[in-house]
Amino acid sequence: MLDSNIYRAIEKILYHYFDIKHEIKAKEEEIMNCQKYGFKIDLGNAGYYSDPTATMAIKLCSKELEIMRKWIQVIDAAKEKFKGTGKGRLLEMRYFEELATDYICQKLFIERRTFYHWRDDIVVYIASLAVKYELYDPEKERIKIPAFLNTKSLKKCGTNKAIKS
């Protein structure tokens, strides 16, 4: 079984799936639209040679963007694996729609025990994909999380939204 901190980190990433996608898009647009400073090469007395395209390429390949893109790939792969199954619906309802546990159990016609078993299966599968994408090192129990999720809490993970009848 996963360490509880790793488990919670993966759930945090799942809850912030759309925030990560939005952050990637915002950073890419910022890089593409910002051409103030380019990669400069000192040519001595002749001045500088600037290459804004090279600067843009370097920024688009940043480690932070790479980590976010990999997490999106991992979650998309998990969504594809569980697509059309109860686990796939649970993934959508729990982490993307953030619905309450009892409501999900009622809609999927499952017991709470099954809910938690399926949730564990989803998180463990995502952890195994994270190892493949070098986002999680099980030996050192280290996981790479997008920096913006560490620096600010966008919303509490696992909030159970009120269900309107």
Kindly list the characteristics that best describe this protein.
7% strand; 8 helices; two-stranded antiparallel sheet; 4 strands; mainly alpha; disordered C terminus; 165 residues
Description:
The longest helix has 21 residues, at 112-132. The strands form 2 sheets. The chain has a two-stranded antiparallel sheet. The chain has 165 residues and is mainly α. The model is unreliable at 154-165 (pLDDT under 50). The protein is globular. The chain is 62% helix and 7% strand.
Secondary structure: elements and pairs:
Elements (H helix, E strand, L loop, with lengths): L3 H12 L1 H17 L5 E4 L5 E4 H9 L2 H20 L3 H11 L4 H8 L3 H21 L3 E2 L4 E2 L3 H5 L14
Antiparallel strand pairs: 1-2, 3-4
